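FAQ: What does a ligand-bound record look like?

Like this one, built around adenosine-5'-diphosphate:
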Amino acid sequence: TEEMLHRQDKLAAVGQLAAGVAHEIRNPLTSMKGYTEYLQLDEKDENRLEYLGIIMDEINRVNEIVEEFLELSKPQPLILETKNIVPIIQNVLSLTEFDARKKNVILFFDCYHEEILIRCDENRLKQVLLNFVINGIEAMPDGGEIKVVTELKEEKVHISIIDTGVGMPPDQLRRIGEPFFTTKKSGNGLGLMISFKIIESHLGRVFVESEVNKGTVFNIVLPMEIVKDFSNDGIEKVGLV
Ligand code: ADP
Ligand code: MG
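The answer part, i.e. the structure of the complex:
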């Protein structure tokens, strides 16, 4: 039956996740073991501090993975409230502005509405937007632009996060959101999985379009409650350098 299929899907997902966690934790453990063995062999090794530093970094990496998973495994109910998403987006952009500026990334926010009310869990939604904006910044090693655009279509609000970064080829695009799928040296490949989950739990959807060396668009579509328009042209720009 459909329900059984659903359960099987879930079990498969759990297995995939468990295998991923084990794999992710084994790498730092192996390197910690190696460096600890060095230190045991020669307690006056001149690279002692460097090795201890590496071990500390690896401990932090394991810790981060475990934290993320605790977060995921807690079936916390969404705390839904009616919120204006305009200041939520502005807040996320101001949180990332400093980091963006350092990396020669300019952030823009094009919003033609003063108030767009949706039912959402504000903190979770912020987490999603942060993930997308930070991914965008990370996709532009030589700087560029991130534009956040809100549009209203058929009782839904579309929030697009558009970057001018490296983009993704189709086989990579297909894999995003898989647990631990990352192309970054220090990425953990959990951000999108968590973000997609959060949007789904808001009865929303995420569409992604990407072109290599052109950039990527993450389009979040959420059910909307009410809109209030600006009287002027309402263009907001954040983080112009
Ligand atoms: P992480 O950022 O830790 O790698 P994510 O789940 O956030 O994990 O992203 C998974 C992968 O998706 C990234 O490693 C990258 O390859 C790809 N990706 C995500 N966002 C973008 C983007 N804006 N531009 C290009 N690639 C992206
Ligand atoms: Mg990420």
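Follow-up question: can I read anything off the structure? Yes, for example: Residues 131, 134-135, 191 surround magnesium ion (ligand 2) (CB under 6 Å).
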